[in-house]
Amino acid sequence: MKRILVVEDERDLAELLAFNLEKEGFRAICASDGISGLESAKREAPDLILLDIMLPGMLGTEVCKNLRKDQRTSRIPVLMLTARGDEIDRVVGFEVGADDYIIKPFSMRELILRIRAILRRSEPEGVSTPLFTMGEIVVDLQKHIVVSAGNEVDLTSTEFKLLVYLGQRRGRVISRELLLQDVWGYNNVGDTRTVDTHITRLRSKLGAPGDMIRTVRGFGYKMEELQS
């Protein structure tokens, strides 16, 4: 049974989320403020965190930032809940390490679909070759380790899957829509800026080798080794 930590200060919403999650076969754990949410994440090691942005004690963005700094919680997927739909809020959420976001009010069906999609891409896939390289980037698929230019890079589950997806299709141009479908698991095309924000963050984490991820203007991205 997958465990979902719900960090939400609106009691009615938290109870509704917990009820629907348990109805779908998950185990729900609730926290009502940012500080207790962070403590629960470290103590419970949930499979996914539903994290509201506007929280008492500590904002959701700060909670997420702290989660990513701690080795115990750095790879737990985070789905942010926000009442604000401005692009800046989504970008900030991604910059601090969120895997996805959903804007209030949302349908429980959409939320459950998003959760299942995130959990699917967080699970290790069966692979015949556990290790592959792309220039100065080395990826261990089984251990979920990425080394770039000799330094180990801490990626979220979404960033890891995005890197592997592009790397295994190096030289091919991949549209933003296809990335949303295959990496994020969206059946219907969503906001393609989600892809752009994750690509920017991934490049930054990889350092100079991140330049291998090339933007194909007006279409999408491709990965190719840098010419010396």
Explain this structure to me?
This protein folds into two domains: 3-122, Rossmann fold; 131-223, Arc Repressor Mutant, subunit A (Orthogonal Bundle), CATH 1.10.10. A hairpin with a 2-residue loop joins β6 (131-134) and β7. It is of the alpha/beta class. It is built from eight helices and twelve strands. α2 (34-44) packs parallel to α3, α4 packs parallel to α8 (193-206) and α6 (157-167) crosses α8 (193-206).
- CATH class label of the largest domain: Alpha Beta
Percentage of residues in helical conformation = 25-40%
Report the order of strands and helices: EHEHEHEHEHEEEEHEHHEE
The portion of residues forming beta strands comes to: 15-25%
CATH architecture of the largest domain: 3-Layer(aba) Sandwich
Apparent shape: globular
- The CATH superfamily of the largest domain appears as Response regulator
Annotation, overall tally of beta strands: 12
Query: Which structural class matches the secondary elements?
Result: alpha/beta
Q: Give the CATH topology of the largest domain.
A: Rossmann fold
Radius of gyration: 17 Å
Largest sheet: 5 strands, parallel
Distance between the termini: 49 Å
Order of strands, widest sheet: 2-1-3-4-5
Mean pLDDT: 88
Uncertain stretches? none
* Number of helices, counting only DSSP H or I runs of 4 residues or more: 8
Number of domains: 2
